Amino acid sequence: MTERSCADTDAHATPSAHRPLIGITAYGEPTAYGVWHHDAVLLPRTYTDSVFAAGGLPVLLPPREEAAAIVDRLDGIVLAGGPDVDPGRYGADREPHTGPPRT
């Protein structure tokens, strides 16, 4: 990761621009809002609230390979809880207690 200082930002920027950018992994889930049914990228609000409370600016990282491109621009990362990772992704066998894989 790269290091940045407040001096690297625009002098006329809002205070949020001076907060460190903290990426938080999120996950995809099917959702329903009234008559709308969509896949959504979700994260419990307590994660973003905690990053704000600690002085950071949260950035959600969707569960896509392309999200890795932003990691070098972040000041930190939070690996949020979520569904089980398919053990096949890292060459392991599925255990009986492992939940079904989700994408």
Describe the SSE topology.
Layout: E1 21-25, E2 27-33, E3 36-42, H1 45-53, E4 57-61, E5 76-78
Parallel strand pairs: 1-4, 1-5
Antiparallel strand pairs: 2-3
Describe it.
- With 103 residues, the protein is mainly β.
- It has a domain at 18-31 and 39-82.
- It has one helix and five strands.
- It has one helix at 45-53; strands at residues 21-25, 27-33, 36-42, 57-61, 76-78.
- The strands form two sheets. The protein has a three-stranded parallel beta sheet with strand order 4-1-5, covered by helices on one side. Strands 2-3 form a two-stranded antiparallel sheet.
- Strand 2 (27-33) and strand 3 form a beta hairpin.
- The two termini are 27 Å apart.
- The relative contact order is 0.23.
| pLDDT < 50 stretches | 5-13
User: Helix/strand/pairing class, anyone?
Assistant: mainly beta
Report the portion of residues in β strands: 25-35%
Mean pLDDT across all amino acids = 82
Q: Helix-strand pattern, N to C? A: EEEHEE
The separation of the N and C termini measures: 27 Å
- Largest sheet entry: 3 strands, parallel
Shape descriptor reads: globular
Total number of β-strand segments? 5
Alpha plus pi helix count: 1
Spatial strand sequence of the major β-sheet: 4-1-5
What share of residues is helical? under 10%
If you compute it from the alpha carbons, what radius of gyration comes out, rounded to the nearest whole angstrom? 17 Å
